């Protein structure tokens, strides 16, 4: 019996996963299978959801037996702040979980005699800056992560590259093209339709969500000078889909920086105030989280993505507000 051809999304119940499912289903994909620890609220846009862990070998084996997989979007992970509080668990999920998915991709590639595309969302946490480093940071610079999450992400990028180039190098089964591994190092992502949990760049989306509930001030856990790169979720989803569509021969690399704007906390607060004049931010600095963001670049160089797959952000800080955040918040206010 022929197996159903599918796209597999792990971590599908997260912020990126929900937005990616929307995008892919609007583009006509009706063969999405999802795997997440949590059940999906809305299963109308997918073929099947599996509630379980990427660490559960039985689940991975069943997926391997039941389906023919063309593409894996491997989004499941423990994010940066949560990982610092539970580094051994983080290593299990972020590294061993990713290895399970890479192994699944190679098994599928071998069985179907066709490469499996694999998307891996990396992060600016792979960088570790010491003082006096000049931004923007290129992909090959400052790869000295200071957090377990950043270490996990950097190692998984390297595993993806290793297995796509060298798998079975020393055996007669050698076939370097079974895994088509592609990765983006995301900056902080701002989604207006979903809420972040467990990331260290969460202060910017949290500010926005709390401004929209007019009665609340926002207590920020990093200082007002803090500046990290960000982009809005629709641009991030566009970038994933664009990278996955590019012909492999155009890609000179497997890992790419992208970002759109790098506001300080103070600048973002002032920008919010032009729409919500009474919105106030207070500061209660969390030293650990401040230390984490201080080690990350405030700007990343995106030239590689521009040259190889013509990537540019559609939204800067101004039109992110005028065309994405504010229209959504206003429509929510009208409907509530
Ligand atoms: N959101 C960002 O700003 C950002 C920035 C850089 C990189 N990333 C990366 O993008 C990916 C998705 O991020 P997100 O913001 O959607 O995260 P999220 O925390 O919103 O979603 C992660 C999902 O993974 C699931 N998950 C966790 N452990 C699992 C396991 N063992 N088995 C199965 N599912 C599991 C969770 O239930 C959750 O639904 C992650 O790999 C993250 O590291 C995100």
Describe the structure.
By secondary structure, the protein is α/β, with parallel strands linked by helices. The protein has two domains: 4-188 and 232-257, Rossmann fold (3-Layer(aba) Sandwich); 189-231 and 260-296 and 316-335, UDP-galactose 4-epimerase, domain 1 (Alpha-Beta Complex), CATH 3.90.25. Helix content is 42%, strand content 16%. It contains eleven helices and eleven strands. It has helices at 15-26, 57-66, 80-85, 87-112, 148-166, 203-212, 233-245, 265-275, 287-294, 303-309, 317-335; strands at 4-10, 32-36, 48-51, 67-74, 116-123, 179-186, 188-190, 218-220, 230-232, 255-257, 281-283. The strands form three sheets. A seven-stranded parallel beta sheet has the order 3-2-1-4-5-6-10, with helices on both faces. Helix 1 (15-26) links the parallel strand 1 (4-10) and strand 2. It starts with a strand and ends with a helix. The mean pLDDT is 93. It binds nicotinamide-adenine-dinucleotide (NAD). The site of nicotinamide-adenine-dinucleotide has 29 residues, from helix 1, strand 2, helix 4, strand 5 and strand 7.
Brief account:
It is built from eleven helices and eleven strands. By secondary structure, the chain is α/β, with parallel strands linked by helices. The radius of gyration is 20 Å and the shape is globular.
Topology:
Elements: E1 4-10, H1 15-26, E2 32-36, E3 48-51, H2 57-66, E4 67-74, H3 80-85, H4 87-112, E5 116-123, H5 148-166, E6 179-186, E7 188-190, H6 203-212, E8 218-220, E9 230-232, H7 233-245, E10 255-257, H8 265-275, E11 281-283, H9 287-294, H10 303-309, H11 317-335
Parallel strand pairs: 1-2, 1-4, 2-3, 4-5, 5-6, 6-10, 7-9, 8-11
């Amino acid at each position: 019996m022929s197996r159903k051809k599918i796209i597999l999304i792990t971590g599908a119940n997260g912020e990126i996963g929900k937005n990616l499912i929307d995008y892919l289903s609007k583009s006509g994909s009706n063969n999405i299978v999802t795997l997440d620890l949590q059940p999906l609220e809305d299963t109308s846009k997918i073929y099947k959801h599996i509630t379980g862990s990427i660490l559960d070998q039985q689940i991975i084996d069943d997926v391997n037996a039941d389906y023919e997989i063309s593409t894996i979007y491997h989004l499941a992970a423990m994010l940066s702040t949560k990982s610092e509080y539970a580094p051994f668990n983080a290593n299990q999920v972020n590294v061993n979980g990713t290895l399970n998915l890479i192994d699944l991709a190679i098994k599928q590639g071998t069985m179907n005699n066709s490469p499996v595309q694999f998307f891996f969302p990396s992060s600016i946490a792979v960088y570790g800056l010491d003082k006096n480093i000049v931004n923007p940071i290129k992909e090959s610079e400052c790869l000295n992560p200071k957090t377990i999450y950043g270490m996990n992400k950097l190692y998984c990028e390297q595993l993806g590259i290793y297995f796509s180039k060298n798998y079975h190098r020393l055996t007669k089964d050698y076939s370097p093209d079974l895994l088509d591994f592609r990765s983006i190092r995301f900056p902080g992502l701002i989604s207006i339709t979903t809420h972040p949990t467990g990331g260290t760049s969460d202060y910017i989306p949290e500010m926005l969500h709390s401004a929209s509930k007019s009665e609340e001030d926002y207590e920020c856990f990093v200082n007002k000078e803090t500046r990290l790169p960000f982009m809005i979720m629709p641009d991030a989803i566009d970038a994933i889909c664009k990278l996955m569509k590019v012909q492999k021969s155009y890609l000179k690399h497997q890992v790419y920086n992208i970002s759109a704007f790098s506001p300080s906390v103070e600048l973002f607060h002032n920008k919010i105030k032009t729409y919500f004049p009474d919105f106030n931010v207070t500061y209660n600095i969390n030293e650990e989280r401040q230390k984490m963001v201080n080690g990350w670049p405030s700007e990343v160089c995106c030239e590689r993505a521009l040259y190889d797959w013509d990537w540019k952000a559609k939204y800067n800080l101004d039109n992110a507000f005028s065309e994405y955040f504010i229209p959504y918040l206003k429509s929510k206010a009208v409907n509530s």
